[in-house]
Write a structure and sequence with these properties.
single chain; 79 residues; 18% helix; elongated; mainly alpha
């Protein structure tokens, strides 16, 4: 992780579950393209967030009505 942080620019790799496992990555430039209220704001979204991201769903408002979410995930940040 420290070697990656020390690079002069972000590596050419898409964001994925490895960005949060085992710990959250402190490099934020990789997510600058994400809009406000993006899918990663879902409370305990985990793998679902990455699946939606790979499917082209970027904002909470773009999540289809029939997309299966748990009750806590139906509100950004669990509010």
């Amino acid at each position: 992780m420290f070697e990656t942080i020390a690079l002069p620019q972000c590596p050419e790799i898409r964001i994925g579950e490895y960005c949060d496992n085992p710990y959250g990555c402190p490099v934020t430039i990789c997510r600058k393209h994400l809009p406000e209220s993006n899918i990663f704001d879902l409370y305990r979204g985990g793998k679902k967030c990455y699946k939606m991201y790979y499917d082209g769903i970027l904002t909470v408002g773009d999540i289809p009505e029939d997309y299966k979410l748990g009750q806590p995930q139906k509100n950004p940040k669990g509010l």
